[in-house]
């Protein structure tokens, strides 16, 4: 298993554990994302038992994509806990995402019924702050 993908999944697992419970929808999303990385459910379960440290992604697009996946996971169970928001902020800052962008994303997600921000809106937010 690729260490970068392990670290990405571990970030998602740590976020899922932030509120001290892992919902079925959170677990299913992590397994589904792992599958796209050719990582088996058994390997995901090993990471749940032993997550590895975060690893900052190379390109800006990779960091934005990873941040978006974290936001999707935070909202998949339709509950947003303060610990999850704090962790999202922490991950974002570690990835080099500006705090203003993180704030805008958190505000924008509240404007959608399912809290899923369309990709074109995400790109608008990043373009506003990075150009």
Q: Overview of this structure, please?
A:
The chain has helices at residues 3-17, 24-36, 41-49, 60-76, 82-94, 99-109, 119-130. The protein has one domain (3-130): TerB-like (Orthogonal Bundle). It is built from seven helices and no strands. The mean pLDDT is 89. The relative contact order is 0.14. The N and C termini lie far apart (36 Å). By secondary structure, the protein is mainly α. Helix 1 (3-17) packs antiparallel against helix 2. The longest helix is centred in the middle third of the chain and has 17 residues, at 60-76.
Keywords:
TerB-like
Q: Determine and state the CATH class.
A: Mainly Alpha
Could you tell me the mean pLDDT? 89
Distance between the termini: 36 Å
Tell me, what's the shape? globular
Element layout with pairings:
Blueprint (H helix, E strand, L loop, with lengths): L2 H15 L6 H13 L4 H9 L10 H17 L5 H13 L4 H11 L9 H12 L1
Helix pairs in contact: 1-2, 1-4, 4-5, 5-6, 6-7
Brief synopsis:
This protein is mainly α and 131 residues long. The protein has seven helices and no strands.
